[in-house]
Amino acid sequence: MSRKFFVGGNWKMNGDKKSLGDLIQTMNGAKVDPNVEVVCGAPAIYLDFARSKLDAKFGVAAQNCYKVAKGAFTGEISPAMIKDCGVNWVILGHSERRHVFGESDELIGQKTAHALESGLGVIACIGEKLDEREGGITEKVVFAQTKVIADNVKDWSKVVLAYEPVWAIGTGKTASPQQAQEVHEKLREWLKANVSEAVANSVRIIYGGSVTGGTCKELASQKDVDGFLVGGASLKPEFIEIINAKA
Ligand code: PGA
């Protein structure tokens, strides 16, 4: 089954109207492979701005959301609000949410369920820390994280699974194509055994962690790598090269 290549940009807490506006202009004017689904993760306060300026062929994602539609949750945003801005995706479970802000697997699962019920697509992030990789428990960690997500998903067509080894995020240490492929393949096997063969074959598993214009092509050539989640390089014109990694 062919899986449409998916490239997400994660702007994190970076940029302002001037610099993001310039980036958006570059993206709108670039020649991009029409066979790639592109989604830019904007800071919450710039979701409206990004959606109104980015060409309609590019999707926009929030970088987080809460697990209910509204209420007394100071500082949070809901999937309903995200959709109200014309934005159709949310990144959930990013390692910075897990490890800087202490989000639990349980909360990420609840957020996933509510975001999907609200009609958002979810880029669900998982990944092991360095000590976990060195301790030989990468699979155990990513399977456990994936299980909590899977327990909260009814419609897998709205989910992209992002494998992002924590040791590779923002460190300049990209996983080797073999390291990425190995985990992606295992994740697909897990999905086959625990969800269904159809889901295992159709769900996009994307890689994140120091992806650059220089590393993207070989990573993209791996059988089970269906795209990328890009942090630092998504703020640069280099992002276009990554979008076109398979072209
Ligand atoms: P990076 O970030 O590309 O800067 O390593 C990836 C991510 O956090 O999604």
UniProtKB/TrEMBL annotation:
One of its GO terms (biological process) is gluconeogenesis. It is an enzyme of class 5 (isomerase). Signal peptide: none annotated. Pathway: Carbohydrate biosynthesis; gluconeogenesis; Carbohydrate degradation; glycolysis; D-glyceraldehyde 3-phosphate from glycerone phosphate: step 1/1. It catalyses: dihydroxyacetone phosphate = methylglyoxal + phosphate; D-glyceraldehyde 3-phosphate = dihydroxyacetone phosphate. Coiled coil: none annotated. One of its GO terms (cellular component) is cytosol. GO terms for molecular function: methylglyoxal synthase activity; triose-phosphate isomerase activity. PROSITE patterns: TIM_1, TIM_2. The keyword Isomerase applies. Its EC number is 5.3.1.1. CDD domains: TIM. Keywords: Gluconeogenesis, Glycolysis, Isomerase, Lyase. HAMAP family: TIM_B. Homodimer. Belongs to the triosephosphate isomerase family. Triosephosphate isomerase is an extremely efficient metabolic enzyme that catalyzes the interconversion between dihydroxyacetone phosphate (DHAP) and D-glyceraldehyde-3-phosphate (G3P) in glycolysis and gluconeogenesis. This is Triosephosphate isomerase. The gene is tpi1b.
